[in-house]
Specification:
5-stranded antiparallel sheet, globular, 118 residues, 19% helix, HIT family, subunit A, 21% strand, alpha+beta
């Protein structure tokens, strides 16, 4: 399991970030390269490398990721019109940081999830 990631350093305050939520389980901060008007990453404070590394003991924190995402969507004013939650897994899934994270995106129509490949 990865234990010291870029995101772990954000959780510990070693790297600055625009944190919008933090408690002893979950941290949420604005993405430095936003893909929508609202683009916030919601992460477990304990690193889980990928979705493929999730174990039954992680179930409580995974639920917390979703409830925190809902709270943030409400506070950011995007809950009423809708938003997207994305979890990328490994290289082919587009994961760039080996620390499980939930992308919360909204603030405009987001279109299709995947482009058609010919």
């Amino acid at each position: 399991m990865t234990t010291d990631t870029l995101f772990s350093k954000i959780v510990r305050g070693e790297i600055p970030a625009d944190i919008v939520y933090q408690d002893d389980t979950v941290t949420a901060f604005r993405d430095i390269a936003p893909q929508a008007p609202v683009h916030i990453l919601v992460i477990p404070n304990e690193p889980i490398a990928t979705a493929a590394d999730v174990e039954p003991r992680h179930e409580p924190v995974l639920g917390k990721l979703f409830t925190v995402a809902r709270q943030i969507a409400e506070s950011e004013g995007i809950a009423e019109n809708g938003y997207r939650l994305i979890v990328n897994c490994k290289e082919h899934g587009g994961q760039e940081v080996p620390h499980l994270h939930l992308h919360l995106l909204g603030g405009r129509p987001l279109g299709r999830m995947l482009a058609h490949q010919d």
